[in-house]
# Entry
Amino acid sequence: MFRTVLTLSPFGLFLASVERLLSKGIQATPPSFIRGILKAASDPEIISFAGGLPNPISFPQEELLESMERIVKVYGSSVFQYSITAGLPELRQYIANRYNRRFGLHLTTDNILITTGSQQALDLIAKVLLDARDGVIVEKPTYLAAIQAFSLQQPVFYPVELSEDGLNTEQLEKALDHNVKFMYTIPDFQNPTGLTYSAQNRKRIYEILKDREIVLIEDDPYGELRFDGEHLPYIGAGRLPYSILLGTFSKTVTPGMRTGFIISENTELLKHISIAKEASDLHTNIFSQYLIWDYLTHHDLDAHIAKIKALYQKQAQAMMDAMDAYFPEGVQYTRPHGGMFLWVTLPEGISAMSLFPKALEKKVAFVPGDPFYIDMQNVNTMRLNYTNADCETIREGIRRLGEILKEI
Amino acid sequence: MFRTVLTLSPFGLFLASVERLLSKGIQATPPSFIRGILKAASDPEIISFAGGLPNPISFPQEELLESMERIVKVYGSSVFQYSITAGLPELRQYIANRYNRRFGLHLTTDNILITTGSQQALDLIAKVLLDARDGVIVEKPTYLAAIQAFSLQQPVFYPVELSEDGLNTEQLEKALDHNVKFMYTIPDFQNPTGLTYSAQNRKRIYEILKDREIVLIEDDPYGELRFDGEHLPYIGAGRLPYSILLGTFSKTVTPGMRTGFIISENTELLKHISIAKEASDLHTNIFSQYLIWDYLTHHDLDAHIAKIKALYQKQAQAMMDAMDAYFPEGVQYTRPHGGMFLWVTLPEGISAMSLFPKALEKKVAFVPGDPFYIDMQNVNTMRLNYTNADCETIREGIRRLGEILKEI
# Structure
């Protein structure tokens, strides 16, 4: 074994270096980029479009407090005791019923596994499917915390370009020539771009995947938040043999309680994911599962979601109107039909990252595009969140951003 | 890519086989042994010593409900919103203060990371430190869910025998000749054996480890539950450069809310664990963190723990008295000074596993020793839990078990 390496820390303590002990997986995992930015943007004077926080209007606080009182009274120690790995059967049944009714699926409780937020679903799937150097297809750009979760298993990423219509299916077919274990998609109001795959694009992807032994993950945290147009059918859910659909209560009830779920009709796959879940945290917080289930069965979720959607639509519109007014020509942006984000493309060659310090000086923050790509730096894109500021503030923030953009 | 393999499931659905998609890690992870047993023992007529459930007396239900009302009122949307990965600063400060006061440590909030139960701590540490075939030293026998969590990273296990005095230090020194990344121990009221390392054994282990670049994990879920004798000093906490101490509120407040914590003075190591945590579930349920913190600061935790300990001591004594009365000669058992379990050793050559079906017939359940060992089957040991049945029931269960043992 190696001898201990001790260095003197600023506080006078001996800090032992850990470099030589670290796994290849953690070394391959990108540092916590966004959290760093959020810290820089935590100054309350800053108008932040950097976060991904739902508006507090989405937390039904009074109703949840009522439900807390009820479940403690009715279920007593069961809401505080250890529980089963798959999750509260009543909550799983509720989820199955809702998806069956809304999307014509044929789910039972056996098709649902409750996770500690959707983020855990990404971690579990990577654990179950990936060995080092296995292939993973992702959107270009894609959700940065998915890159983080998958990186722990050291896969090879094959990014496929995303545009207004959806995924580039030519690139997709080429990517499938590699040893690919799964493909990760966010077809509705994608994070970070706000884009939605078209019906035709979905159909084409289905055709490409239908005879292949590859898992399709459809991550759908924002699907309930469509404020424009009609819901489009899932690509694989209910139809592809290796389909996984991810959902969450983070955007409709509360993100702080970390309650998400995996849906799959492939119960064999789900069984392995469940073993990984048991090894990872035994089970998801059972109090929160009872709480959310009780809330859902005592209130009209759709009426609650309608309020959230109305607000987000107003906020998105305010941001787009302000961009039309204040952004110089040559700056483009996506027009989301739902969700929480939109995506700005600057003129070729302009690094959004290089604008970030200037924006902070003017007390406005965004996320430069870099962390949403595999191994790309100084890209000319940025993500803006519109759900967590009022329309007045959004307008002022975009005005400030416009001033910076006019200087480039 | 492979073609899809479809088989007809009992329900007439086509179930696609996933065998060829599975990672080596999940294939190396033992199936959920105990959960299987618990299912078999879920018949309410069965007297079960198989689980590891704290007694519901340990959940301060009324006080927690009061705290729920208070935190929703005082902190509003903050208890429902996304939060930071490290955990609620106020809760981390409370933990630091308690450990500093009780054990003379010098912790700050920076030394504490809140985890989704202690189980997640095991998963995160394995992610950060282990590549396939790296060495891990464990007790023989050890906590079965630790074997599960570590197995996902495909390490080589080096089990070191545990006896009344603690770890076999000769075997420990030999195990350290291998490429070992960390050593996992439960020095107080070990799961499954109920054994506690002696002061001398701890000192000797410290001496062996002190100049080595190896992480020592002291998992201490039961330390607060000592009902006999004085607390013994930690082996490495506050003294070894690569020390990790694990704690939890599962045995003192509520296990259902999955709130545990990692303590380390090695902030560099903790930084990497925090990145792994962010990739795994972003952060631990923030509502539960506020709740537990509010409960702890409004009530006397020590007085609450005193009640739990008094009950567990009575229950442990009832079990030992019954074993003295009903077990045949040649059957030995450990006498725990705290915690939740004791460990029975049958005469050489008797498989505890083979007795399990007979016990179920007599409506009594235990956990055969097998899943607590690496690659050992039909061992002559079993784990008994005494915290979740009243003394009368414990006596009756042991009487039935005695009848079976007399037949062997």
